[in-house]
């Protein structure tokens, strides 16, 4: 999860570069500013933790959360309009959000 300022051209560029690097490293957008990546175990997740630490823009913040397969599967999508369907996210071993 991240919160990056986008007021100046320099901040907008840093945001675009950060997002591009997330995608290049296999992260998938769950919703705006929330990306996840499935990893087989926590030690594999540490690799991406180190990558994220190197990618963080100077201004802004990034939060890393490890979620088990069961916790991720139990996520509920609550929508405000009728007719919107729930999404099935997946069922992998460990998810880094």
From TrEMBL:
The keyword Magnesium applies. GO terms for biological process: defense response to virus; maintenance of CRISPR repeat elements. GO terms for molecular function: hydrolase activity; metal ion binding; RNA endonuclease activity. Keywords: Antiviral defense, Endonuclease, Hydrolase, Magnesium, Metal-binding, Nuclease. The keyword Acetylation does not apply. Belongs to the CRISPR-associated endoribonuclease Cas2 protein family. Homodimer, forms a heterotetramer with a Cas1 homodimer. CRISPR (clustered regularly interspaced short palindromic repeat), is an adaptive immune system that provides protection against mobile genetic elements (viruses, transposable elements and conjugative plasmids). CRISPR clusters contain sequences complementary to antecedent mobile elements and target invading nucleic acids. CRISPR clusters are transcribed and processed into CRISPR RNA (crRNA). Functions as a ssRNA-specific endoribonuclease. Involved in the integration of spacer DNA into the CRISPR cassette. This is CRISPR-associated endoribonuclease Cas2. It comes from Enterococcus florum. The lineage of its organism: Bacteria, Bacillati, Bacillota, Bacilli, Lactobacillales.
């Amino acid at each position: 999860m991240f919160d990056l300022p986008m007021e100046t051209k320099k901040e907008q560029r840093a945001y675009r570069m950060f997002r591009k690097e997330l995608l290049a490293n296999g992260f998938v957008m769950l919703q705006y500013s929330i990306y996840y990546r499935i990893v087989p175990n926590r030690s594999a997740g540490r690799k991406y933790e180190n990558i994220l630490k190197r990618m963080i823009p100077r201004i802004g913040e990034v939060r890393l959360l490890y979620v088990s397969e069961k916790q991720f599967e139990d996520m509920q999508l609550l929508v405000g309009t009728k007719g919107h369907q729930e999404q099935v996210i997946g069922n992998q071993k460990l998810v880094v959000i």
